[in-house]
Amino acid sequence: METELRVARRISATKERKKSSWVRQLWDGRWCYLFAAPALILATMFTFYPIVSSWYFSLLQWSGFTADKTFVGLANYVELVQDKYFWDAFLRSFQFMIVGVPIQLTLALLVAIVLNDQALKLSPLFRTMFFLPVVTTAAIVGMLMTLILSPFNGPVNGVLRDLHLITQPIDFLGSPQTTLWTVIAVYIWKWLGQPMIYWLAALQTIPRELYEAAKVDGAGWWRQLWSITLPLIVPFAIVIILVTAVGALHVFPLIQTLTGGGPFFATEVMEVYIYRVAFGGETGMGTPRLGYASAAGVFFGVAVMVLALMQAWGARSLRDFRSDLQSL
User: Fold this and answer.
1) Which of 89, 64, 45 is nearest to 303 (CA)?
2) Rounded to two decimals, what is the model's pTM?
């Protein structure tokens, strides 16, 4: 009995010490928590709470503008998987990503390699010029590109006619055959500077001595790129690809300004579809369906999360593979 009491006292004393240590850690870091509190509160109000609310709203039949809410369970999801316009928008979002991201990353890498050359004296100026569209709002870019690409006295059509490449003006943003590719091109141009900065940060981690040694051994530019640059930036590339791919799925401001999802839903990606259903019904002119739009948002969010997890798993597998090679 005495032994059991001693053990119980030790356990109790250990718990008290752990509790005291935890409280002391909180007290020691009180200023850190105090300064982080505003950001945490804002994130809770405008990020975490809307995410949780969307899961709840997706189970309701609700317009979002009345007090009448009807719990329908998974009925919104059942209707969603039978909606042709939903699947078209869903696939179009990933089509946008699959086409736009590789082109953007390749161009950004080439630009970053050129601008990383120390012999280029105006490199900071060119970096600023490439990054300027990134900090320009999507609304301004959309309105500007609408004027530039207009078939009515737009400068792009004017140049193409002057070069005798076309006889009739091309309606870049008004034709279902060209509008999606035009929006992808505008997206690549606008956000090219962001992955360029990422690539520059990765390139600047490579010691210059490696390039100097390669030059001494007679390696040319292509051999240096293939044998030094690309292998050493692979760990960074996984993260850059992930960030850029997820960003390509969030192009609502640009598409809404350029085309509004048209013509004939040709550029309606998931975010535009969710906006249209949430505030204008399925036709864009009917009763708003916030519950149904929330179900679409949850479905799309889960798909993006799965994509991110797959890429994270791929990055981890690649690191393990490289570690195994180095240990051989």
Assistant:
1) 89
2) 0.83
